[in-house]
Structures are given as structure tokens and as C-alpha cells.
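Try this one yourself first.
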């Protein structure tokens, strides 16, 4: 990530040190300095916070603040996605469950009805074709 044009010039470190020198009791700037030294970088939000603190210090050169603004603008803005809307589960039609159970009572090994029962138990909607098939099985088998 260190693709600076002049690696010996570190504007962010200069701004951090000058801001901390102007206000030594600032815990926020102190933590930013520690994180910058440990991790080697700051997030966009942290840089924005540093810019707001540093803009109140009169000893910092305006060119350095402008460079900090450019660094902030260069960073991507991350957005949190909104929470997905919970869609209520479809209501089971118990009549179809009763038909399936009645057929399986008489013919427990019926493969097609066992398959439809598995779909019914997994809250999958039965298609119109499945329902007509169950009706046909009901007429023939019961």
C-alpha cells in the first residue's frame, strides 16, 4: 500500500505530530498517531476526524491540510447495506397435508407422494401440477 511518490515525506505523520503538539491532551489524536505507527494507515473516517481536528490548529500549513483533503477524497467511501426485509413464510395449506398423510397411511412406500410430502414438510409451495397429481392419487388410491 506504500506507493508514495516521495517516501520520506509523510504528510499524515506531520499533521498528527503538529496537532498533538498543539493539543497534548487530545486522546483522539494520540490514538490516531498510535494506530498510524502500528498499522501504517488510517481509515477514511479517521482521516476525516483528523482533518477536522487539524483544521483548528493554526500552525499547520494550508498545503498539508489540502494534501490531507486530497488523500481523503482519493479513498473509497464504504456504505453499509440496508437490512433485508423479512418476508413471512407462506402459510401451509393443511388440506394438502391431510391428503398426503391419508395416502401414506394406506401406501407408506408410494415414492411420488413421499417426494411431495418432503416438499410439503420443507415449506415449499406445491405447484398446480403437484396438486392435481395429489387429487388423482386420492381418487385412485382412496
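Now uncover the answer:
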Amino acid at each position: 500500500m506504500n506507493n508514495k511518490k516521495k517516501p520520506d515525506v509523510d504528510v499524515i505523520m506531520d499533521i498528527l505530530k503538529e496537532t498533538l503538539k498543539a493539543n497534548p491532551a487530545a486522546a483522539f489524536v494520540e490514538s490516531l498517531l498510535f494506530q498510524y505507527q502500528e498499522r501504517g494507515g488510517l481509515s477514511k473516517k479517521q482521516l476525516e476526524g483528523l482533518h477536522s481536528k487539524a483544521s483548528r490548529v493554526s500552525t499547520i500549513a494550508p498545503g498539508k491540510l489540502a494534501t490531507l483533503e486530497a488523500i481523503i477524497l482519493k479513498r473509497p467511501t464504504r456504505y453499509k447495506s440496508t437490512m433485508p426485509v423479512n418476508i413471512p413464510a407462506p402459510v401451509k395449506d393443511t388440506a394438502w397435508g391431510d391428503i398426503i398423510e391419508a395416502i401414506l397411511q394406506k401406501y407408506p412406500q408410494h415414492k411420488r407422494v413421499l417426494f411431495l410430502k418432503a416438499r410439503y414438510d420443507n415449506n415449499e409451495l406445491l405447484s398446480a401440477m403437484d396438486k392435481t397429481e395429489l387429487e388423482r392419487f386420492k381418487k385412485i388410491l382412496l
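Discussion: The chain has a mean pLDDT of 89. The CA atoms of residues 22 and 58 lie 9 Å apart.
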